[in-house]
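Troubleshooting log. The previous run stalled partway through. Resubmitting the same three chains, unchanged.
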Amino acid sequence: MRTVIGICLAVALGLSVGAGAQERGVTGEEVVIGTSMPLSGPAAYWGAVGRGMEAYARFLNDQGGVHGRRLRVVVRDDAYLPPRAAANVRELVERVGVFAVVGLIGSANAFAVRDYLVRNEVIWITPTADASMWYGFRDKKYLFVTYPSYVEEAKILVDYAARQLGAKTVAVFYQNDLYGQKGLLGVKQGAVRSRVRVVAQVPYEVTQAEVSSEAVRLRESRADAVLLYATPRHGALIVREMARIGYTPRLLSSFTLGDPVMFALAGEAWNGVISTAFFPLPGTGDARVDQALAVLTRIDPALRQNPFNGLAGWAFMEPFVEGLRRAGRDLTKERLVQAMEGIRNWDGEVIRGVTFGPNRRQGINRVFLTRAEGGRYTRLTDWITYPVGF
Amino acid sequence: MTLAAQYLANGLASGGLYALVALGIVLLYRSSRVLNFAHGDLCTLGAFLALSGLQAGWPYGAALVGGLVGAGLVSAGFYHVLVRPVREGTVLGLVITTLGFALFLSGAMAWLWGTDTKPFPSPLSDVRVYRLGGVVVSELSAGSLAASVVLVGLLSLVVHRTPLGLAMRAVAQNPVAAQLLGVPARRVLAATWALAGVLGASAGVLLAPALLLDPFMMLDPFLKGFAAAVLGGMDSLAGAVVGGLLLGVAESLFAGYVSVKFKATLSFLVIVAVLLLRPEGLFGRPLERRV
Amino acid sequence: MVRPGPGGVLREGSGLSPANNQPRVELRTSYAQDLRLVSGWTGWAGVVLLVGILAGLPLFAPRYVVYVATLCSVHAVVAVGLNLLVGYTGQISLGHAGFFAVGAYTQGLLLTRLGWGFVPSLVASAATSALAGYCVGLPALRLSGPYLAIATLAFGLAVHQVLVNWEGLSGGRSGLFLPELHLAGLSLRDERVLYWVVLVVACGLVLAAVRIVRSYVGRALVAVRDSDVAAEMSGVNLTRYKTLAFGLSALYAGVAGALMGHVLGFLEPQLFTLFESIYFFSMVVVGGLASVPGSVLGALLLTLLPQLLSGFGEVLNVLYGLVVILVLRFEPGGLYSRWLRIQRYVRMWPL
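Second attempt completed without errors. Output:
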């Protein structure tokens, strides 16, 4: 019992340092932003987004920061577990004292911290969760999202499969969480509109190691096109497996698989896959994105293995940095919100066409389609827009 | 019919891999009654070490051997530093120590090799396939299955036909009596741990080309391997193989004909049902205790 | 049935670990003495101080600390309950996240669908999870060791998959959001109020556990652990006590799960994975088998560790693993056993 007292005291003292006087997370010299990511566990792959954010911040700081303030990114590991994410965010806000939370990966984790961040009026930039969690949600004053909607994206993919590829039937291979399920929902809605039939829905769990039976089930559906909502690993495994058992439908995938790493993981089988993208992919002839990637890999060579997620980190942070620039030296939360709301059709180095407004928090409402060919992606279509949802 | 055969073939292919994982678990459990939670991470470690060897320009065989030896040494080292000196330890304490070691290893691998998914080269092609009737089996999974059969044979030779194997069995049965009769029990145990590590690493290098390598690759195969070991009977090497194959086939058939969503639950329910009929697993020795 | 009597029970003598085999000799001669939790004025002063600090924590600590303390209390409840099963009865469960989930979703559904209040739904979730524990305990009559581990693991897995895939019941991966509750006019959304509520429940359950293990039920459980055949010979009904241990343990996990729902404000299957079960299990072992304060310590350490080390990023797992390894390497009996040694050292000083 007495040990418990001692430990409580020590911990209370240890945890209670911090907390600032003026605007939280802003001093004369720096702006602190925080994020919680899976750096370990089955989703650790996405953790590179945090590395990309850190590298981007270092790049900005080397140029003197924003209005003389350096950016400091504090990354916490949540192992993709909601309680850990909730604790991390509280720690970021109350102990580290961050000006804004940027990112946060996974819908479950975003749900776990939403109430807290909204009640405490913390600026929250681009949680990578499905857009539907914000539809009809009222308290979004401090939220700014530049991330595509899975549902709308799926409709665009189905439309393309029906009209350009002539598919009459489609099947969906999806991760059995909100990411995959919203993709599936979008496919079903799109199928009604585009008059195609959804002939198979094959889910998998993110912890699952192999997917051979799933591939056979997809083959048995004989769908003309298969849509993929998966992690890069499972995406690569399923296309390899389908190719092996002699099933070669047209393949379409969500933007999360529009990643150059897929060629290394899936090999030949990835050729011909059509995926969406919400920023120009590196190596598709967009000089500014190539330049941004060169910067990232120069600062953090490990991002060479994971260029897409590194750039995604940059893309999530970029509108916020633009907001900081516009808000001026005298930075407060309200000024930042005002500045962000003033962003109209703004192009960054990576993310393009960002628009916010007093009643608009969904910064982008468009994607374009790419096709994988011979180890690189080529752009297939111009931007395709969808209605702004929130 | 072809379809059923295809599901069966898929099940056998993944079952062979579960069996390989299960073997290492069983080998260790027989001799020390410890369920090694770090076994999966040792598998991954072997694969990463081999990959580093390849990247350093070693020939394929040398890199594989390097990976196996490396994992074996780490496993034996774990025994020497953390298991042997703990005299007052309980079995559960040891189990949780291996859990700590698993966390340590996975963290270290994420730190050293990064968390991104990596392709792992293999001399066997994943794309080249054999067709038997309408059933498709890739060279890689056929090769892995063959390799696991060979490994099981080798292992049973070691356990049943060599002095080391005899000593291992003696220590497994009664460590104190074995020691009194002059068997160097600690060295034998260290050898058992090393052998389990080597087995794990060979599972790792066989799995990595098929599953793609990252530090958390073995989470699911380890669990299945554990389940397979229990299904077969925790102290039977043959049981581990049969258990692995049965589990693989059950899973594949459930996924094909009943429900993809519940395939894991259904196959575990089968295991529980089997255990209720045979509490010591399919091939395990019936529980004998002195009261 | 024969009740194992109190005659000369040594308080610390029943630990699984031989590290405890030099108990402080405190011969007790009646049930009343055996059940007394606090003795002497130093004991009472300690209790008053402890209660004061725990209850007063939200008054001076930042809210983040209050949140972490709430999390610790919830985990402590699970760990204490699991220890009743693992440490005292010698049964293994790798499916406690399942009971945790049953409790959490029972309360969540009663609150959202039927509009029940906090207390009745908490009681209901305790009851359903205890029932689930009883059912899972039935196979345990035949299974032991790794075989039981797999059976319980299967239960945990099944609960998780049902929650993921039966969306009509659980909301699936979209989560189940809990309504804002009020107790005596105070909102449970306020982390200080929630902390107090969780603290009261946790303290109640921990004290109950202490009472249970010192009563004849506790002694029967220990007898089952040490030798089930001998226990049966002495009149301990194995079926009754094994299932009772499972039921009790699941009840603790269920109540903790219900509280966890309020801590996060929503429920999602990802909260109840195998990882969580293993995490609970390691709390018990690191804290010390067959020791209620040990479980509290284990829960504290393993809940605080990721928060205290969170600055280390991916190296966190390396350090976390190291701490677990080192604790068990140098104190195989767990944290509580080290505490007893320190206590003994201080008492014996300067010898």
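Takeaways: The beta strands of chain C are 176-177, 182-183, 186-187, 266-267. The CA atoms of residues 89 and 225 of chain C lie 5 Å apart.
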